[in-house]
Every structure is written in C-alpha cells, then in structure tokens.
Amino acid sequence: MDYIWAYPEDSGYQGREPLTGFTVQASDGTIGTVDRQVDQPGRQHLVVDTGVWVFGKSVLIPAGAVTQIDRDAKRVTVGRAKDEIKGAPRFVVDSQTTDPAYLTEVGAYYVTLVGAPTG
Predict the structure, then answer these.
(1) Radius of gyration of the chain (CA)
(2) Which SS3 state, helix, strand or coil, does residue 79 take?
(3) How far is CA 75 from CA 22, 25, 101, in A?
(4) Which ranges of 9-99 does DSSP label H, i.e. alpha helix?
(5) Residue 109, by phi and psi: left (phi above 0), alpha (psi -120 to 50) or beta?
(6) Which of 9, 85, 91, 103 is the most exposed place for a label (fewest CB within 10 A)?
(7) pLDDT tens sequence across 7-30
C-alpha cells in the first residue's frame, strides 16, 4: 500500500515542487484547490479545499491518486471521480496528516477503488 503515498513516476511530479493554489480536477469535474501538501516520503498527499462542493470542507488525497500535474495550467488531475473522493474517510483536523491510523484508513480506501494500481 506504500505506493498510494507517492506520486506516480508518469504524473509529472518533479519532487518538492509547490502545488499550493493549483486547481484539482477529478475525472468528472473540478474538486477544489490545493490548500496544503505534505512531501514527506511515505506520506505524500494533498489537502484540497473543496469550497462549497463538500460543504466547505477539505479532503486529503494521497499522491498516488494523482495522474497528471500541469504546471502551465496550474492543475493537478486525479484519477478518481468526485463521488469516490467524497466517499473517502473525512478529513477534519490538521493533526490527521500525521496520524498513522487515519492515514492507514485513507490509504486502504484509495487502494480498494476500481482502477487503483496493483504495485
């Protein structure tokens, strides 16, 4: 399950580049904007401000769900539908970005989605 916490090699991620402020695009529409990112090896993820889409809440998206980063358009594309992201374990407080139990729960959820990579 470790792969879910790292950007795929073909995503265009070049390492430690700031993605804050980038628009996040799901397979079926815009989710929101990158509010924060964590680049710690084994825990890479984005915290996305969804605005009104999920009642003003944020969602945590593991880096392994990212399929493309377009620096020119300032857009991050994830290979999941909005409902799949909405169905992920709720992100409530910043301390969850370092909580092993919460990260395990989120990682397990994304791994089980249809189309998750196998390795």
Answers:
(1) 13
(2) coil
(3) 5, 7, 30
(4) 82-86
(5) alpha
(6) 9
(7) 999 999 988 789 999 999 999 999
